[in-house]
Amino acid sequence: MASMKRWRLTADHDACLGTGICTAIAPNHFQVIDGRSVPSTEETLPDETVRDAVESCPMEALRILDAGNGEVLAPL
Ligand code: SF4
Fold first, then answer.
1. Number of domains within the chain
2. Phi, psi (degrees; rounded to nearest 5) at 74
């Protein structure tokens, strides 16, 4: 069985300003807790909504990494 690629989500607490843009775009994957975005799950299946959220962060506080090899997939 071929292994399905998975994404690892990270949020930089020092960079995040708590704007809530990411949570508005991808409410199933990010939540703002105490003014900082936190991924709801550490890993997720590839999802273009999540990519949109990560690319929309004005602080570039979010990252999508390839869960297998750590390659940065977004933002690009
Ligand atoms: S869009 Fe960026 S700055 Fe705004 S809450 Fe999300 S991670 Fe924080």
1. 1
2. -165, 150
